[in-house]
Amino acid sequence: AQSVTQLDSHVSVSEGTPVLLRCNYSSSYSPSLFWYVQHPNKGLQLLLKYTSAATLVKGINGFEAEFKKSETSFHLTKPSAHMSDAAEYFCVVSDLTLSNDMRFGAGTRLTVKP
Amino acid sequence: DGGITQSPKYLFRKEGQNVTLSCEQNLNHDAMYWYRQDPGQGLRLIYYSQIVNDFQKGDIAEGYSVSREKKESFPLTVTSAQKNPTAFYLCASSDRGQTDTQYFGPGTRLTVL
Description:
The complex is a heterodimer. Helix content of chain A is 0%, strand content 55%. Chain A has strands at 3-6, 10-14, 19-21, 23-26, 31-38, 44-50, 56-58, 64-68, 73-78, 87-95, 102-104, 108-113. In chain A, strands 2, 5, 6, 10, 11 and 12 form a six-stranded mixed sheet that branches. A four-stranded antiparallel sheet of chain A has the order 3-9-8-7, with no helix packed on it. In chain A, strands 1-4 form a two-stranded antiparallel ribbon. In chain A, a hairpin with a 4-residue loop joins strand 8 and strand 9 (73-78). The radius of gyration of chain A is 14 Å and the shape is globular. By secondary structure, chain B is an all-beta fold. Chain B has strands at 4-7, 10-13, 19-25, 31-37, 43-51, 54-57, 64-66, 76-78, 87-94, 103-104, 108-112. Chain B starts with a strand and ends with a strand. In chain B, 0% of the residues lie in helices and 50% in strands. The model of chain B has no long low-confidence stretch (mean pLDDT 91). Classes of the chains: A mainly beta, B mainly beta. The A-B interface holds A 9, 32, 34, 36, 41-46, 49, 90, 94-96, 98-102, 104-107 and B 4, 6, 9, 35, 40-45, 48, 56, 88, 90, 92, 97-99, 101-107, 109.
């Protein structure tokens, strides 16, 4: 079975400082990994996706994530936080060999202080 | 404009009543999904459908029902058998299957009084 753990339920940063949202996964096979963002009372928007190509994945709004198989991690980073980045972020793992198994992390709420 | 629409955005119902949430997509996606979101718990899969006239139970299907009569539509009925129906419900679709990128609708917040 596969699973994903987001290590922080809440992260607070100041505007202009780096963002790090941590995600560890467990998967028996070659996983696909995603990061989604959700603003209050909205649906989820895809930030980026890893599917066994380059290990450093660049997404929208300046976010990127690095797949590290040895550490089973897929942390999300951004060099400089903006006020509009305040939202809930979800790490998701999907197994390419299973037909119906996509697992969501519990989410990390990012707060950006002025 | 391509996308997924869910209606209504907010829904209030009395306990014991069935209620149907709408989900429509014009992305020509084969697969559609319903998730439930509760605070601090991420998303949990209720039902999914990979093709018209076929659907499968997810992790928390009890108390819910779905239909998939048309490719673009995947309505979810929350029945009176669902013990804690108050939640935020999200619909999603993907092109070829559940391992593909899923695109989400704006959600419906259901409150049962």
